[in-house]
């Protein structure tokens, strides 16, 4: 089981009137973790085609505990639960040790940069994504 771990700093402005990180800011945190796993890290392995060629199809977030500002970064574990021909699902846990603040999923689709249309995942992309593949277990 390989998960990408991203340590994401919180900002004071992430909090809302209730004193916890706003639900909209969670999407920003997830985006930062996803970009690190899918766009920054692959470049070190010469997988350049993912960058700018993925679009978000769907987001789903389950909040499990309020997250409040603190100076220490929050850990976001990221992995892939499903790989299709042209799309895949990224799963996340926003956590601090054993405390999980949110679980989320994002469906991403590969697109052709020139036409903006859906395309199949290339072999090097699939290989990169597969390194983080951890299939969901049905209940």
Topology summary:
Layout: E1 4-8, H1 23-43, E2 54-63, E3 74-83, E4 87-96, E5 99-110, H2 123-130
Antiparallel strand pairs: 1-3, 2-5, 3-4, 4-5
Structure report:
- By secondary structure, the protein is of the alpha+beta class.
- It has a single domain (4-130), classed as Thiol Ester Dehydrase, Chain A (Roll), CATH 3.10.129.
- The chain contains 2 helices and 5 strands.
- Strands 1-3-4-5-2 form a 5-stranded antiparallel beta sheet.
- A hairpin with a 3-residue loop joins strand 3 and strand 4 (87-96).
- The two termini are 19 Å apart.
Q: What gap, in angstroms, lies between the N and C termini?
A: 19 Å
Q: CATH-wise, what's the superfamily?
A: Hotdog Thioesterase
Number of domains: 1
In terms of per-residue confidence, which ranges show pLDDT below 50 for 5 or more consecutive residues? none
Computed structural class: alpha+beta
CATH class: Alpha Beta
**CATH architecture call:** Roll
Number of helices: 2
Name the beta content range.
25-35%
User: Which bin fits the share of residues in helices?
Assistant: 10-25%
Helix and strand element order: EHEEEEH
CATH topology: the name is: Thiol Ester Dehydrase, Chain A
Give the beta-strand count: 5
